[in-house]
């Protein structure tokens, strides 16, 4: 937490005197405070991280109020808390004591400062972004990583007169916002350094001691390893990656959480999963969807690690470029067991040559960034980027690797398109052949159904004909014999014309019923259910008469010409 003390100013308004905040966050906190929201890691893994807190002590008359809030809060939020505690309206509050001058209610507590630091001997300028919560001591340690000048030998120009305590944060050190210029060089002797300190109040030095006189670092509240920026992983509160993780996914979850706590949320999105899973995600999809693989190899014992992570790997331009164009997988090489595990994985996926190459790199050459591309049926390491680089050089090498990858990707896309075109033609031919077979089969089945239907109808027709023939024969056999023409009984001679134009002639007794006439016509193949029997003149439908009437009663005596007509 960051502590700030507040003093009382007689009057109607509270006043604030700001002291040097002290931070409980790790010294290697991110040099960029930009809010970058990384994509949720693969397999839905979500890494939670405690926010950095600031503690303000406000003195108002005889009352002291402690205000604790996140570093991303604004001054206006402090006033709202004070209004609740002190019952003083926000409009009447005036907070004093900010070492950077008066601030507005909307101003954030974690502003970013751009430090342009000139290295006198190397004649080189470093443009470094730091949050306001970064301490002067942490800035000097970062400069040691860049210039190889130990903190005790650093001679500075440009620090304000108020910045005499290295535990002070940049936000309260009185430096210019948003950009402040500083100069650093290696001091030549203690006497010369003391002289500089007396002549210029802008000079800020950590110590006047040199060489063996700097054996006791406890007076600064830190151990010697931390001052040199070379503390081992064992001296840290939490290693970047556990030594005996059950699987690579759990190890990467721990790595991502620890990386975020050290360097902030603005960092590349690390793939959560095994190296083999990263290969499958990167190289074995469609050619248009493939990306090169960036393997980040971390080492806590390297003096380059802190600066590379905070200033290069976490630079917004690098983070954006990696997120858009690469799949980034990470591993910690600090522990020997993890190092051996990584070399085994490299041997399996790349071969012994790559593994042996990684073995040749010394600790102070880490961290490494390996750019890997899937080529045909093998995986090829395009580039190995060491930690002693700059943002511009890192970006150029990433872009160069991307150009090689895009050229290979275009070739793979052409091959894939040609293969898909051939497969499409084959599929179309197979589909046409299948449709043809299906049409032939449907045609054959239709013919078979038609033939079966014809057989069925023929069978029905035959059965109907057989049935009608049986009825006809039975009716024919049941007819009374035709009477003689010279008989004693009255005779009715009937002449019947069929629809085909033929005539049926027969004699009937005048006393015969009409039913006998109907049965005679039906025995000739004209059932009265289907045909009607009509007289010529006057036109009458005989089949509508009572079949029990005699021919005489039906006026079909002594002779009559009739004709058959099919019923509608």
TrEMBL record:
GO terms for cellular component: endoplasmic reticulum; nucleus. Residues 12-34 have a biased composition (Low complexity). PROSITE patterns: UBX. GO terms for molecular function: NF-kappaB binding; ubiquitin binding. The keyword Metal-binding does not apply. Residues 407-463 form a coiled coil. Keywords: Coiled coil. Residues 1-34 are annotated as: Disordered. Residues 487-564 form the UBX domain. GO terms for biological process: ERAD pathway. PANTHER family: FAS-ASSOCIATED FACTOR 1, FAS-ASSOCIATED PROTEIN. This is FAS-associated factor 1. The lineage of its organism: Eukaryota, Metazoa, Chordata, Craniata, Vertebrata.
């Amino acid at each position: 937490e960051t502590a700030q003390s507040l003093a009382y100013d007689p009057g109607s308004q509270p006043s604030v005197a700001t002291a040097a905040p002290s931070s409980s966050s790790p010294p290697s906190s991110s040099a960029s405070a930009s809010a970058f929201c990384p994509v949720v890691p693969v397999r839905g893994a979500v890494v939670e991280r405690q926010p950095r807190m600031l503690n303000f002590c406000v003195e108002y008359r005889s009352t002291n109020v402690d205000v604790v809030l996140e570093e991303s809060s604004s001054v206006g939020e402090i006033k709202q808390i004070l209004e609740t505690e002190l019952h003083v309206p926000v409009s009447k509050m005036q907070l004093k004591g900010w070492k950077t001058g008066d601030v507005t209610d909307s101003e954030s507590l974690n502003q970013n400062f751009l430090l342009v630091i000139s290295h006198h001997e190397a004649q080189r300028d470093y443009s470094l972004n730091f949050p306001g919560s970064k301490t002067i001591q942490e800035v000097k340690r970062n400069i040691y990583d860049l210039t190889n000048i130990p903190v005790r030998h650093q001679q500075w120009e440009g620090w304000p007169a108020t910045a005499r305590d290295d535990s002070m944060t940049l936000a309260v050190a009185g430096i210019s916002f948003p950009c402040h210029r500083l100069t650093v060089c290696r001091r030549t002797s203690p006497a010369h350094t003391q002289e500089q300190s007396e002549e210029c109040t802008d000079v800020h030095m950590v110590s006047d001691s040199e060489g063996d006189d700097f054996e006791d670092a406890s007076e600064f509240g830190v151990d010697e390893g931390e001052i040199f920026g070379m503390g081992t992983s064992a001296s840290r509160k939490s290693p970047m990656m556990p030594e005996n993780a059950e699987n690579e996914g759990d190890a990467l979850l721990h790595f991502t959480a620890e990386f975020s706590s050290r360097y902030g949320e603005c960092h590349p999105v690390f793939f959560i999963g095994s190296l083999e899973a990263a290969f499958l995600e990167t190289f074995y999809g469609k050619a248009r969807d493939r990306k090169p693989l960036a393997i980040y190899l971390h080492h806590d014992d390297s003096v380059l690690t802190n600066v590379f992570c905070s200033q290069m790997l976490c630079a917004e331009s690098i983070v954006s470029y990696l997120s858009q164009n690469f799949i980034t997988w990470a591993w910690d090489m600090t522990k020997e067991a993890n190092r051996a595990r990584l070399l085994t994985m490299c041997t399996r996926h790349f071969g012994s040559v790559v593994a042996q190459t990684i073995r040749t790199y010394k600790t102070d050459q880490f961290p490494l960034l390996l750019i890997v591309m899937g080529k045909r049926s093998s995986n090829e390491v395009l580039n190995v980027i060491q930690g002693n680089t700059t943002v511009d050089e890192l970006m150029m090498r990433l872009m160069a690797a991307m150009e090689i990858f895009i050229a290979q990707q275009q070739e793979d896309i052409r091959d894939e398109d040609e293969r898909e075109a051939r497969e499409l033609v084959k599929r179309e031919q197979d589909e046409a052949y299948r449709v043809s077979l299906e049409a032939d089969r449907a045609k054959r089945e239709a013919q078979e159904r038609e033939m079966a239907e014809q057989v069925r109808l023929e069978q029905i027709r035959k059965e109907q004909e057989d049935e009608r023939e049986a009825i006809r024969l039975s009716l024919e056999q049941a007819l009374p014999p035709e009477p003689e023409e010279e008989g004693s009984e009255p005779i009715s001679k009937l002449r019947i014309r069929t629809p085909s134009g033929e005539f049926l002639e027969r004699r009937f007794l005048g006393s015969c019923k009409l039913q006998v006439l109907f049965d005679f016509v039906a025995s000739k193949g004209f059932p009265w259910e289907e045909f009607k029997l009509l007289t010529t003149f006057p036109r009458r439908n005989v089949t509508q008469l009572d079949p029990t009437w005699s021919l005489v009663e039906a006026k079909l005596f002594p002779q009559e010409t009739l004709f058959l007509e099919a019923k509608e």
